[in-house]
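Anyone up for a design puzzle?
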């Protein structure tokens, strides 16, 4: 047995059009042992053991394959074990695989390759070939292309040298193992990739031509979709007989043409006798003869069909195979045929021709067979047709060879296997709306069969029952059924399997179809492979869950439990579970709710319980959003009504302030700085509201009322107690004011306006009182000073501020000299600029005596509450002292302060002398300031320019000198800082005047209809006037701005002009008399040009509407009315005038005429109760004596007729007249019936 190596190729290449199996023939021995008598099922190893894939090729050449001029191979391709040689114009319809070289003959090949090319040797191709797939060459690849481009659609892979001419197109790119490609031109290009990259050079090298369509230096690899597999090569023992058969010229074979008579002959439908299967000697057929063969195996020593016009017809009534096994040579001459009896409709078994010798096929032969000659050359000559496969040592496919041609009947060595084919998969949509639908099934055969095939099967449910497994609600089971394939059929559609449609959501439900048995075919040897899983795909949407009642729900906080119902849009085979999420808008309310709600399988409704806790806390009404969410969107969706809004109203009273909250506090005044008092503001319980609160300081005055910002400071007097909290803090500071005061207090009262809230009950707590107890009084220190004996009476001895430690501004203090030995010599006075001063009062005892005792005085200062004393020791001296100015802090003055404004004052120390004189002697501010020579008070000089913005330096200096009576002096430099005062520029639009109209002073908004406006405006440094023009209606702000360079801020003034020129429109209601009028009424016509309003109502009021543009620019309507005082028969004129806010005026004049007298109507023909015998009569009538020329005819009905004529004047007055007439066409004396008169 020879061994065969098969390379299987999957259908994955984008350039591959069909299944391709490349075959490598490796014969280990040319004289293999023969050990079977045929290839039938009873022949042991035979053809029945050959893999089907082996027989799916067109041409197999173990050593070589030759394809001739314009030859066309079968779609299943060509395999060559050695060299494959191609002539010009040949077409390889499938893939080509060569284990050796690929050679083309001629300068212009023009070959077409519909598939892939795989060459393990070298490939030599000239011009004009086209490859629809990819090209793999393990060795060298040499191609032309200069005269006609070679085109390769897929990728090109080369393992060795790659050389070419030019104009070649490699659309799928090139992969080479070398780093260069040799070309024949430096001027003409080859094209690589899609879109193409044009490259030209004698040698293309990597790194020089680095286009991505070229991959260099890449080791050659076979296509990834090839793998290998070994099979047995067909071998057999041919057992010919000795009975030679000769078919004579121009006849068909019969049983007498053998060397021995043949019995048991069958007759073909055309009447020919059929040679029975068996062993025979040599078969020879003479010119124009025929031989009929049947189903089975034929053994021949040789076959000689060298003559012309020979026909072998194969009769296969049961679709069985026919095998022709030949020990020697087979020779077919000119125009010989071997084919089925009926080549049109016959789909029977394949004809197999086997030869161990030479197999020669002559010119124009047509063979419908599989040719196997493993040790021979299959030599075909001009224009043969082979509708089968060929396997030989060497194959020669000559000029105009035609392979397959679409009529090829494949050879199948075994019975076909049964399967199911699914055009849309084995999962079929269920459908909706009820009823049934077909589960489409197609039973399939692995290949055609010559005998009818019957398949028996049934369907089963899966267990255990449940979601995912179909049941009787889903499908109608098939207990047992069958389908039959006619000979040649490979597919049968089965439409009796019905599934039930519904609208319920469920899982995809599966069931099984089981193949039970088959006639004339095979089931799979593995039982599980005969069980097919079929599924019913759920195409109903997952149920949608919503709240049954989507409306908002309003409940009281004390409601307790609430049942909330949910519903599904459709049933589900699964339990539908939704997660429950609750969102609280306020977040204080507590509640209990389950984590989820479920609707049982097959149900559509359920409910869950939401329990609300009554928290007994005043809180805002809460809004609960109860939200349904799915945990698996594949089995449950959530709808638009999946959010339930529950508004929970609060039923608890407002919270109060705690009864234990302190409201009275006593705080000692600190000696310096401030003492902070934190007062807790405490609620009696928590609230669900944010509680705003505020305190206000009660006004008050007097010695016992503390002063804000002097005695205390409010740090925090309002705030908010957040929801859920109990307290906040009031913060005040008690200040050290260094004043002598008694007990003081201040009151902070709860302010329900500033701290407005409906959620705090202040009852029982009105205010908070803070008391500051009486503090210390004035404080004096003892002092020793000098006094010159020459000091005159009234001379200053001591400025008492030097011993006084308080500097009150509001407390009145009394100074006294207590009785003592020297008390009479001194007095205390309050001097301007110096405050309280101790002066010489009686100088009689004051004289300088060396060693004399000092004078001593006890001085007392008292306030309303406290007193203190100081011992002043005065040493009399004759020393003349120089005055000493007390150096103070920097002085400050506001800019633009007028002359005479006090800036600050200077003091001297006690003992500086008397009769002091102050003067300014220098400094940068000498022109802007003066000093009072007696008091030392620094003043702004009259006419001084202290503008902050104009001053180059905002800090000025003064050199001040003071001189005493001894002409002793002291000087000091004083710094004065100019304080910037925020100043605003001023501008004002003073007057606006409408040309020829009214003027407006200090206008803000004007409504005008003029084309221009004159304005006058003034500013800090002048005034201006201008005219403003308007081109259209609208709102026009007129803005004037001015920035004074010496002031901090600019100023602007705006005058808004609203212009409208549209006149008002007045519309009066229609006064026409449009009421229903009696039949046969004539309306008085109005004279041309008469516009008067006629009325018969003395109290006539005519309503109307006036439309105009109001001051805001809106179109508005107002109701108006004209109510004239009317006189009978007189014209009364009413003038209506309206002026809008812009000055646009409309005027309308109305003329009313009152007429209350109806017109006089008289019918004078016919006369009353006149009888007539004709149906149409003349009518004569007049109005106010004027004969009318209308309504002058009347049609009568039998019996009594009333003829009426009416006339309405312009004021609406109607006059009428009527007569009764009788129509009696036959009897003039007919009785008159006035019960139902007819009016004409």
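Challenge accepted. My sequence:
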């Amino acid at each position: 047995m020879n061994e065969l190596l098969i390379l299987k190729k999957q259908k994955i290449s984008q350039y591959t059009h069909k299944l391709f199996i490349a075959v490598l023939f490796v014969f280990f021995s040319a004289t293999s042992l023969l050990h079977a008598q045929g290839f039938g099922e009873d022949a042991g190893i035979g053809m029945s053991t050959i893999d089907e894939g082996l027989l799916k090729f067109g041409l197999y050449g173990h050593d070589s394959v030759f394809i001739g001029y314009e030859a066309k191979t079968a779609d299943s391709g060509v395999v060559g074990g050695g060299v494959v040689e191609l002539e010009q114009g040949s077409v390889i319809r499938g893939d080509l695989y060569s284990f050796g070289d690929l050679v083309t003959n001629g300068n212009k090949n023009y070959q077409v390759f519909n598939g892939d090319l795989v060459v393990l040797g070298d490939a030599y191709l000239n011009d004009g070939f086209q490859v629809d797939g990819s090209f793999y060459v393990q060795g060298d690849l040499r191609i032309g292309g200069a005269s006609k481009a070679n085109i390769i659609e897929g990728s090109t892979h080369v393992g060795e040298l790659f050389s070419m001419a030019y104009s070649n197109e490699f659309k799928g790119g090139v992969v080479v193992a070398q780093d260069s490609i040799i070309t024949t031109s430096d001027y003409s290009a080859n094209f690589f990739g899609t879109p193409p990259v044009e490259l030209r050079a004698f040698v293309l090298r990597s790194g020089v031509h680095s286009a991505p369509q070229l991959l260099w230096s890449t080791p050659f690899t076979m296509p990834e979709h090839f793998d290998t597999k070994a099979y047995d090569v067909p071998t057999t023992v041919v057992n010919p007989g000795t009975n030679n058969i000769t078919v004579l010229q121009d006849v068909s074979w019969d049983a007498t043409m053998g060397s021995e008579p043949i019995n048991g002959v069958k007759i073909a439908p055309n009447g020919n006798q059929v040679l029975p299967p068996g062993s025979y000697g040599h078969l020879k057929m003479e010119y124009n003869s025929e031989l009929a063969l049947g189903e089975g195996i034929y053994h021949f020593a040789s076959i000689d069909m060298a003559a012309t016009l020979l026909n072998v017809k194969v009769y296969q009534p049961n679709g069985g195979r026919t095998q022709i096994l030949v020990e020697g040579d087979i020779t077919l001459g000119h125009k010989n045929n071997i084919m089925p009896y009926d080549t049109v409709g016959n789909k029977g078994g394949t004809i197999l021709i086997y030869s161990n010798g030479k197999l020669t096929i002559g010119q124009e032969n047509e063979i419908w067979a599989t040719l196997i000659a493993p040790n021979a050359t299959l030599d075909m000559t001009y224009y043969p047709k082979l509708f089968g496969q060929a396997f030989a040592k060497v194959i020669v496919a000559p000029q105009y060879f035609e392979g397959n041609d679409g009529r090829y009947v494949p050879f199948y060595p075994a019975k076909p296997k049964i399967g199911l084919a699914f055009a849309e998969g084995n999962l079929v949509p269920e459908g909706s709306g009820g009823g049934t639908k077909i589960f489409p099934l197609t039973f399939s055969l692995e290949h055609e069969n010559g005998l009818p095939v019957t398949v028996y099967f049934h369907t089963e449910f899966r267990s255990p029952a449940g979601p995912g497994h179909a049941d009787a609600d889903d499908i109608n089971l098939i207990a047992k059924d069958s389908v039959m394939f006619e000979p040649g059929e490979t597919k049968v559609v089965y439409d009796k399997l019905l599934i039930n449609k519904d609208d319920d959501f469920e899982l995809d439900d599966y069931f099984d179809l089981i193949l039970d048995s088959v006639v004339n075919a095979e089931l799979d040897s593995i039982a599980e492979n005969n069980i097919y899983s079929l599924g019913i795909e759920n195409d109903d949407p997952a149920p949608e869950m919503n709240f049954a009642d989507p409306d908002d729900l309003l409940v009281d906080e004390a409601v307790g439990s609430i049942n909330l119902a949910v519903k599904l849009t459709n049933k589900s085979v699964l339990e539908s579970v939704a997660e429950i999420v609750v969102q609280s808008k306020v977040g204080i309310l507590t509640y209990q709710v389950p984590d989820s709600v479920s609707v049982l399988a097959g149900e559509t409704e359920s409910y869950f319980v939401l329990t609300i806790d009554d928290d007994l806390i005043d809180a805002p009404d809460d809004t609960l959003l109860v939200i349904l969410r799915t945990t698996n969107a594949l089995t449950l969706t959530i709808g638009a009504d999946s959010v339930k809004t529950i508004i929970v109203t609060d039923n608890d009273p407002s919270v109060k302030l705690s009864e234990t909250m302190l409201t009275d506090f006593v705080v000692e005044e600190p000696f310096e700085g401030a003492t902070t008092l934190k007062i807790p503001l405490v609620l009696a319980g928590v609230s669900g509201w944010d509680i705003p609160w505020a305190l206000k300081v009660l006004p008050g005055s007097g010695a016992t009322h503390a002063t804000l910002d002097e005695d205390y400071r409010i740090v925090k007097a309002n705030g908010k107690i957040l929801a859920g909290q109990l307290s906040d803090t009031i913060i005040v500071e008690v200040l050290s004011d260094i004043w002598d005061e008694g007990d003081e207090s201040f009151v902070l009262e709860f302010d329900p306006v500033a701290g407005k809230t409906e959620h705090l009950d202040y009852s029982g707590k009105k205010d908070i009182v803070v008391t500051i107890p009486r503090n210390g009084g004035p404080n004096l220190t003892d002092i020793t000073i000098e006094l010159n004996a020459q000091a005159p009476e009234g001379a200053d001895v001591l400025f008492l501020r030097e011993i006084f430690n308080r500097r009150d501004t509001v407390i009145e203090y009394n100074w006294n000299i207590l009785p003592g030995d020297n008390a009479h010599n001194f007095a205390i006075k309050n001097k301007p600029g110096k405050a309280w001063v101790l002066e010489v009062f009686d100088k009689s005892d004051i004289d300088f005596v060396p060693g004399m005792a000092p004078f001593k005085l006890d001085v007392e200062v008292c306030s309303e509450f406290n007193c203190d004393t100081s011992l002043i020791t005065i040493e009399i001296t004759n020393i003349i002292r120089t005055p000493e100015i007390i150096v103070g802090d920097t002085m400050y003055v506001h800019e633009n302060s007028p002359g005479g404004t006090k800036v600050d004052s200077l003091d001297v120390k006690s003992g500086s002398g008397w009769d002091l004189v102050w003067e300014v002697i220098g400094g940068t501010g000498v022109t802007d300031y003066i000093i009072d020579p007696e008091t030392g008070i620094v003043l702004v000089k009259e006419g001084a320019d202290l503008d902050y913005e104009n001053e180059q330096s905002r800090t000025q200096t003064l050199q001040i000198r003071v001189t005493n009576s001894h002409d002793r002096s002291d000087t000091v430099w004083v710094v004065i800082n100019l304080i910037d005062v925020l100043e605003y520029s001023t501008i004002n639009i003073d007057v606006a005047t409408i040309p020829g109209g009214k003027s407006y002073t200090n206008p803000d908004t004007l409504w005008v209809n003029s084309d221009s406006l004159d304005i006058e405006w003034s500013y800090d440094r002048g005034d201006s006037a201008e005219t403003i023009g308007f081109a259209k209606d609208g709102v026009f702000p007129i803005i004037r701005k001015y920035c004074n360079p010496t002031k901090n801020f600019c100023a602007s003034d705006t005058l808004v002009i609203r212009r409208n020129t549209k006149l008002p429109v007045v519309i009066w209601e229609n006064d026409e008399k449009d009421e229903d009028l009696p039949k046969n009424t004539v309306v008085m016509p109005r004279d041309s040009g008469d516009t008067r309003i006629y009325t018969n109502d003395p109290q006539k009021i005519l309503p109307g509407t006036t439309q105009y543009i109001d001051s805001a620019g809106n179109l508005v309507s107002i109701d108006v009315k004209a109510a004239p005082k009317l006189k009978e028969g007189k014209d009364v004129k009413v003038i209506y005038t309206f002026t809008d806010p812009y000055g646009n005026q409309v005027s309308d004049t109305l003329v009313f005429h009152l007429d209350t007298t109806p017109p006089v109507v008289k019918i004078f023909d016919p006369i009353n109760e006149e009888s007539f015998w004709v149906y149409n009569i003349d009518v004569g009538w007049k109005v106010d004596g004027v004969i009318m020329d209308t309504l002058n005819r009347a049609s009568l009905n039998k019996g009594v007729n009333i003829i009426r004529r009416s006339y309405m004047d312009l004021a609406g007055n109607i006059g009428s007249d009527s007569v009764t007439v009788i129509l009696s066409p036959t009897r003039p004396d007919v009785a008159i019936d006035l019960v139902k008169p007819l009016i004409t």
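A detail worth pointing out: The chain has no helices and 111 strands.
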